[in-house]
């Protein structure tokens, strides 16, 4: 299931309800953890479907820079995935909203897009970062994600297509409703 948001000028921004490991774009984004060594949720699914090449590159990045801070992003191969690259970003754990969670979540989106730009990526798919085990309220996370991506895309012309890939139905409905309002 997918729909065009129609709110970002000439860019194609779409909402999909799908497993992100099946999406054929230049890069998919992983909601990783600081260790970069894999975990549950979307992280586990990406490592499982993408194979060991992804983990090997994550280990090398760890050796070089010791993991990844919240809000930052790193890039690896997509391994066996249909996507060429995986951009791993670490979302904030929700602690009630007064510990800089929103700024950190914004950074996840903008730093992932920066890495995409630097690597000539034209199409990118985001999961709903932090809204699983990390507990970020889904509606707030969706508003922020849409706003930050819109802000970023206004000032750049290399990225052609952005997908919001919602796995759970609740997120899909939230994004669909927000897109309707923004149209
Ligand atoms: P976090 O720790 O950042 O909260 P989770 O992986 O627990 O990460 O959840 C983030 C989001 O990813 C949730 O909305 C969850 O429904 C979604 N998700 C889980 N598996 C997949 C998948 N295979 N494809 C896309 N999204 C997924």
Automatic annotation (TrEMBL):
It holds the Pfam family Macro. Residues 1-183 form the Macro domain. This is Macro domain protein. The lineage of its organism: Bacteria, Bacillati, Bacillota, Clostridia, Eubacteriales.
